[in-house]
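Sequence in, structure out. First:
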Amino acid sequence: MATEKQEDNANMAQDEADESYYASFWRRLIASAIDWTLVGFVLFVPGSIYMVIVAAIALQRAMAHQSFPLGSLLIALFWPFLALFILGYFTFSTMHGRTLGMRMVGIRALHAKTGKPPSFKRSVVRSFLGLALLSFASLLLNVFFADPPSDGYSTMETLIMALVTGIGFIGYLRMIWDSRRQTLHDKLTGVVVVRRGSAS
């Protein structure tokens, strides 16, 4: 008589034989676009209010010829909060198997071996690696959009930025040729993103 674990493994193996089991590149791209739009919208309103309040206090102090050293600290604290919010959103959403974007396009994240939603630790690591890859992929944009140093970028600096950017892009695009359609942060944390599957 098959055990419950053996039955689960058999069901997963049967599902994995179906090419449509794993989420496609386009579904994941749309889900990511939805998630980042939602995160941006949620952060824009309170973030804008926060910055306006700090700027107003700083302006008032300046007009009164008073220093406002706390202003720099308040602005500096906003960025760690921003990073923690984004990391927390993707971590806790992944723990439940789906971000809001993934739910809207009908895909979910599962632990590759158990078929269950990833644990908290696995979700934290996966979210952190995913954000790191995204940062890597956008690094080279500094060359085109950010103000360069007064003496410009050296050849070595440009090559390093190109290499890091390439790692970021390849880390995400590897899902196109991977048999399980895993990105690099999926692969390193043992997670698969599927179109269907059970999780209890």
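Second:
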Amino acid sequence: MKLPIVFVALAVLLIASSAVAAPVWYSITGDSPSYHIQAGQNPSALAQAHYDVDAIQTTGWANLGLYSKPLSGVSNEKKANAAGFLEGYLTSELIYQSYLSTLASSFGSGVKAIPRDSADFLAANIAWTESQVSANPRDAYWMRVGLMVKMLKGIVDGYNAKASGSHRFTLVDIWFLNSDGDMEEISVLQTMKKEVGMMTKAKPVTPQPTGTHCSVLVKVANDFSNLFMAHTTWEDFVEMLRIYKVYDLDFYGARVSFSSYPAVITSIDDFYTTSNKLAVTETTNGIFTQDLYNKIVPQALLSWVRALQANMGAKSCAEWMNIFGRYNSGTYNNQWICVDYNLFKPGHSLAPGTLWIGEQIPGLFMTKDVTTTLSYGYWPSYNVPYFPEIYNLSGFSQQPNYGDFFSYSLCPRAKIFRRDHHKVVDVPSMQRMIRYNDWKNDPFSQGNPCNQISSRCDLVQGDPSNPDTQLSAFGSVDGKMVDYFAMQKGITYAQAGPTFDQQPAFTWKNPLWQSEPHAGQPDDFQFSWQTMQFP
């Protein structure tokens, strides 16, 4: 492989090796593979970045703004590749640290490379995706997919330009990081192939993890004066090396702000706000039957690719769902939630189309305008399918009961949201709601800190029978929210780390978790809410 040549101004090297007090601007010029990166803003640059890595230690988030603008005689493909190169170069150390943690989360501690069967699946998916881009050179959808591939290849080259020889990555490695959510099904599929072979019977299976990922609340004020949306990500704590990003790239079609990870060009959480005034998020449902796993093949677009396409192209929630539903991979099977703030008028009844949801399983993507339901007060989401057809086909009805854990109406978080949604009246109260965990006093917790809006499975006591609620370094790792007024200003509120509102703050100094991979993360997570606002 021919390695790129990058010329870097001395100021960049000095800044990268010492602490800085504020975000720093960087610019990239030149031609691939001989790019030139320098500190500062250059109006003729192919792309520019506004980067603050040191904020990780003070807020829990690194911050990255990536920007491009129309340039005479410069193609979108060139700008996409340069923007990716700039991100890969600047965040190279975080990328390597995140790669090791993501491997541990996906495949277990001590794994140093993607297992061959999963790598082969991803390589086949890349090959199919690129073949479709080549076969459809005038199709706007596939042109955008092609720009995404160019950007990822730029990240690979930018990372490798700074990485040591033994730590260099391929496109498969970076594709894997972006596919972290999709790997839940891909890795289970490979295990099933090895252990039992492909079967056609709808046999129940128990994927790990089984789908307990994230909580969402959409809430309209009682007087319709405001509309809130909040999300908390649930995942392994080893993956708490975070970057909050904004992509303001002229070839994207929309400015997109999102919670993310090193080398990842979407969110995975997922949580997005776009300049088209859409707020998009999801919670993971998962699938539990083998016949659905048998439908998963590499010849499709993974969930993160389709989310990116929808963010780039959609100007309404109905359009977002339509774009996302194309080329369904059947991986990362979520309930997607989209709020259209263009349609919200404070003090007025909710307009049709304000809130859409979509639920995916292999071979099926169902959508619905649920604004009428929201008009009665709230829409919750908590890893159990809303549509009965999705619920039954996914295998939820075949799961062990575990005290209504898999019930749409009666699971612990359904009860908590039903009881407490009325407490949300402003930004601080929504922040408290999405970070809520009072498991010792809340009867709906059933005595387990996993059974709360912001789970803390690291605090579990005893030996619960439910595998989703056992002791582990897993749970809520953040909070994000917007309301109508934040959307008008282009800002988001975000808090990093496990909730500590009613519980002790999480620390890696705890002997239970010290050996877990967490390079690059702060030792202690007790950060306040931040206002995410980018140039």
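Remark: The domain at 1-236+245-417 is CATH 3.60.60.30 (Penicillin V Acylase; Chain A).
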